[in-house]
Specification:
globular, single chain, alpha/beta, L-2-Hydroxyisocaproate Dehydrogenase, Chain A, domain 2, binds oxaloacetate ion, Rossmann fold, binds 1,4-dihydronicotinamide adenine dinucleotide, 6-stranded parallel β-sheet
């Protein structure tokens, strides 16, 4: 199983590291446009192999897509991250060109590759890959909900003073500061609804903290986060590589599910060897439906800025 990670920056390197540590891929190629950068990250990571106990071979490439040939899965993290005070949507001008070029180059050398899009604004970048490559929709997956759900569980555990392993919960909708839809009514602690433990006000606070999870970290770090994003991508790559049929909220092209069409937005899907193997269309409450609709309007507005 060969995995390519485009972008050897914070998220790309973290993602490659977690994939290697989990030791399910035979080969990870990291590619970056900056001369020597991916080679350096790959060498540094390989020098952790004997310490961390993995056999995955990690190599680096400066913009040579020949080295990515016959990849099963490719992760696109290339592009600029936001700075404090910015929205993800403000990155569209630079990142759209990068994501378009990178996805086209990847497909020249790996025509059957499954692409996971990370670069922001992620839902719109996922839509762009659909519109410009024309590959089947099961092979284009946007990463946002897996990360947002991990942050939701972190905030729920914090509010309940509970171990995170007790918590289950999911965030759907657009991967933006205002567009995320944390499904508070579905979240549980050991099968018991979290509303049994937390007041409505506290739950609303958890939902708000979850939605601005990326912005909160960007303010603290001066750039956006990488550990949890890298871990989220690595779990999705593993689900595909190991044909786990595992459920994650991912950005996917909808065709009527959730009442939406011609948009990529986060909904629960099953990930297995073919990429997105099924979209799970769960019933939402009226309030959740309204939030999903508003979220979709925001994503569509950003999609409208693309020059297709
Ligand atoms: N979807 C999500 O949940 C998340 C998305 N992100 C996004 O991921 C992207 C990357 O973030 P970071 O890794 O923190 O940024 P970074 O600046 O650390 O790394 C980006 C890398 O992309 C490279 N790059 C730029 N143009 C390229 C091209 N044409 N070909 C190959 N490589 C190229 C740069 O040289 C740099 O090394 C950002 O757009 C950020 O907003 C970050 C975290 C979570
Ligand atoms: O906040 C950002 O810009 C990066 C990102 O998408 C996240 O960490 O959720």
């Amino acid at each position: 199983m060969k995995v390519t990670v485009v972008g050897a920056g914070a998220v790309g390197a973290s993602c490659a590291e977690y994939i290697a540590i989990k030791d399910f891929a035979s080969e990870v190629v990291i590619l970056d446009i900056k001369e020597g950068y991916a080679e350096g990250k790959a060498m540094d990571l390989m020098q952790t192999a004997s310490l961390m106990g993995f056999d995955t071979k990690i190599t680096g490439s400066t913009n040579d897509y020949g080295k990515t040939a016959d990849s099963h899965i490719a992760v696109i993290t290339s592009g600029i991250p936001r700075k404090p005070g910015m929205t993800r949507e403000e990155l569209i001008g630079i990142n759209a060109g990068i994501v378009k070029t990178v996805s086209s180059n990847l497909l020249k050398h790996s025509p059957n590759v499954i692409i996971i899009v990370v670069s922001n604004p992620m839902d719109t970048m996922t839509y762009l890959v659909h519109k410009t490559t024309g590959i089947p929709k099961n092979r284009i997956i946007g990463m946002g909900g897996a990360l947002d759900s991990a942050r939701f569980k972190y905030r729920l555990a914090e509010a309940m003073e509970a171990p995170i392993s007790d918590i289950d919960g999911m965030v759907i909708g657009g991967h933006s500061d205002t567009g995320m839809v944390p499904l508070t009514s579905h979240a549980t602690r050991n099968s018991i609804r979290v509303s049994e433990f937390l007041s409505e006000n506290r739950l609303q606070q958890v939902a708000e903290d979850t939605k601005v999870g990326g912005a909160t970290l960007t303010k603290l770090l001066g750039t956006s986060a990488w550990y949890a994003p890298g871990a989220a991508v690595s779990s999705m790559v593993q689900a595909i590589a190991c044909d786990q049929k595992k459920m994650f909220p991912c950005s996917t092209m909808l065709d009527g599910e959730y009442g939406l069409k011609d948009i990529c937005i986060g909904v629960p899907v099953l990930l297995g060897k073919d990429g997105i193997e099924k979209i799970i269309d769960i019933p939402l409450s009226d309030a959740e439906k309204a939030k999903m609709k508003e979220s979709a309007e925001g994503v569509s507005k950003t999609n409208g800025l693309l020059e297709l």
